[in-house]
Specification:
Length: 134
């Protein structure tokens, strides 16, 4: 099954932490992972936080971003801006979050996220990792 993944899922997968094992299982149990191009900026911001906290060094950040970009290179998608604004108008989610929802809806595949607001506001489009692994 193909899925859209939001940036927190990508971070769980690429950056060792409490949710990494679950993200690895998700990756193995799904086919292609898609994301709007926005994922890059959000991932850069997450890596910046890790760098500033000293959790990773610049060399590790370079390796991580190159690996993530390489894996998603053929799976980054443009989104319909009007669709994003329509989703914003019917939810409390940010426009950033709505990009992921819009992409999932346009492709007819689930969005995998652990974002409570997205899961609450878009139950027909969004699923948590556990729901797809089970």
């Amino acid at each position: 099954m193909n899925v859209v993944v939001d940036t927190n899922i990508l971070a769980y997968y690429w950056l060792p932490g409490q949710r990494t094992e679950e993200a690895v299982v998700l990756r193995r149990s799904t086919d292609d992972w898609y994301a709007p191009k926005l994922w890059r900026s959000e991932f850069h911001n997450i890596l910046a936080g890790y760098l500033r906290r000293g959790a990773i060094g610049p060399d590790a950040a370079r390796v991580l971003i190159r690996a993530a970009e390489g894996e998603l290179a053929d799976f980054e998608c443009e989104i319909d801006s009007v669709a994003v604004m329509e989703l914003v108008s019917e939810s409390d989610c940010s426009a950033y979050d709505c990009e992921f929802v819009a992409l999932a809806r346009s492709m007819g595949i689930p969005l995998v996220t652990e974002d409570r607001s997205i899961l609450r506001d878009f139950p027909g489009a969004a699923r948590g990792m556990a729901a797809l692994i089970a």
